[in-house]
């Protein structure tokens, strides 16, 4: 976007502003110029804006020297033109095209290859009829250009808004004694092909501008590469380990009570004990167990443990003494 003296102008293709190169400002003539790329077949729109000068203005557009009526702005706002009116309800769009063979001429045209926007400050005085519609050719103007060079032309006719029946008569705002209003500011767009601008060093090389720099790698995050890799490689957190159960197993030398004889411990023989003990309930039989009796010295027999039991035919009675320290065991069923 070119800006000077409270006004701006720019050119768009497909609703995108064209890049501007080598912008230059001529303060003496109040003119701003630049270079823009163009491509054959592209339709374009010319835009301009009043940033709030609070003075009425009228604008004119020159396409390769051909004057195209602009629009009024009443002290502020934005306006545009994208075509030249061909009838009261139709227009032909602005397009970049190539110089045809029949238009090749040696005639000099200083405005060839340029799009110029001129803005004049005016005072509206009275209404008058609209300008008559002029016939439109295929190209804007002829000039000293080679066949095949880029120029401004007009596309296929299309419908547009109905032309107003009247317009305004104006007088100069800055110099009321003058017959015609002078140009307050002008914007000059010199268009050429992108290849020409690159070859002349006016525009940077498109391939070089789009190629990635060596040694640079795109990151998917603002994190450093090492940190990002560590984050992506980290699995989900594992649940905390359950505390190992502590069990105080009985010492082997401790006596086992006869009341606990129905429960026996089955233990692992491995040194790495994952579980301290697994318990199984042994079946209890009503006629099986261990009985401990005190033993009398008169009933001691070294040859047969069953000889101490009195026979049913024996007349000798066994006497059991509670004071004896010796004991014996007998299994019965």
SSE layout:
Layout lengths: L1 E3 L2 E7 L2 E2 L3 E6 L4 E8 L6 E6 L5 E8 L2 E9 L2 E5 L1 E3 L4 E9 L15 E16 L20 E5 L3 E2 L6 E7 L12 E9 H6 L6 H5 L14 H9 L29 E4 L11 E4 L9 E4 L32 E4 L3
Parallel strand pairs: 5-16
Antiparallel strand pairs: 1-2, 2-3, 2-6, 4-5, 6-9, 7-8, 7-12, 10-11, 11-13, 11-14, 12-15, 12-16, 17-18, 19-20
Defining traits:
7-stranded mixed sheet; single chain; 333 residues; 5-stranded antiparallel sheet; disordered C terminus; 36% strand; globular; mainly beta
- Class from helix and strand fractions: mainly beta
User: Helices and strands, in N-to-C order?
Assistant: EEEEEEEEEEEEEEEEHHHEEEE
The helix count comes to: 3
Distance between the termini: 116 Å
Q: Which regions have little confidence, pLDDT < 50, spanning 5+ residues?
A: 225-236, 258-266, 299-333
Percent strand: 35-45%
Tell me the Rg in angstroms. 56 Å
Spatial shape? globular
Description:
Residues 306-320 have a biased composition (Low complexity). Residues 303-333 are annotated as: Disordered. It is a single chain. This protein has a domain at 2-206. With 333 residues, it is mainly β. The protein has helices spanning 194-199, 206-210, 225-233; strands at 2-4, 7-13, 16-17, 21-26, 31-38, 45-50, 56-63, 66-74, 77-81, 83-85, 90-98, 114-129, 150-154, 158-159, 166-172, 185-193, 263-266, 278-281, 291-294, 327-330. β2 and β3 form a beta hairpin.
């Amino acid at each position: 976007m070119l800006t000077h003296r409270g006004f701006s102008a720019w050119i768009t293709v497909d609703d995108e502003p064209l890049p501007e190169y080598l912008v230059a400002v001529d303060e003496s003539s109040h003119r701003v110029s630049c270079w823009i790329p163009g491509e054959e077949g592209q339709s374009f729109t010319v835009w301009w804006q009043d940033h709030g000068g609070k003075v009425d203005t009228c604008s004119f557009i020159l396409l390769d020297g051909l004057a195209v009526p602009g629009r009024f702005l009443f002290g502020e706002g934005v306006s545009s033109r994208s075509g030249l009116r061909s009838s009261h309800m139709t227009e032909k769009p602005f397009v970049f095209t190539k110089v045809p063979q029949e238009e090749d001429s040696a005639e000099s045209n200083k405005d060839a290859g340029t799009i110029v926007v001129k803005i004049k400050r005016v005072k509206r005085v009275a209404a008058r009829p609209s300008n008559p519609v002029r016939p439109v050719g295929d190209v804007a103007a002829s000039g000293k250009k080679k066949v095949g060079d880029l120029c401004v032309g007009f596309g296929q006719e299309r419908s547009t808004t109905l032309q107003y029946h009247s317009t305004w008569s104006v007088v100069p705002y800055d110099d009321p004694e003058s017959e015609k209003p002078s140009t307050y500011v002008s914007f000059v767009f010199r268009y050429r092909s992108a290849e020409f601008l690159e070859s002349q060093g006016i525009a940077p090389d498109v391939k070089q501008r789009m190629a990635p720099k060596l040694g640079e790698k795109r990151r998917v995050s603002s994190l450093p590469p090492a940190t990002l890799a560590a984050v992506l490689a980290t699995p989900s957190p594992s649940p905390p380990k359950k505390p190992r159960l502590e069990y105080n197993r009985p010492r082997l030398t401790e006596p086992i009570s006869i009341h606990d004889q129905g429960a026996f411990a089955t233990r692992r023989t491995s040194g790495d004990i994952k579980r301290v003990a697994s318990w199984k309930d042994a079946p209890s039989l009503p006629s099986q167990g261990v009985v401990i009796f005190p033993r009398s010295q008169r009933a001691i027999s070294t040859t047969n443990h069953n000889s101490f039991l009195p026979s049913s035919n024996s007349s000798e009675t066994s006497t059991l003494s509670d004071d004896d320290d010796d004991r014996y065991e007998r299994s019965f069923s």
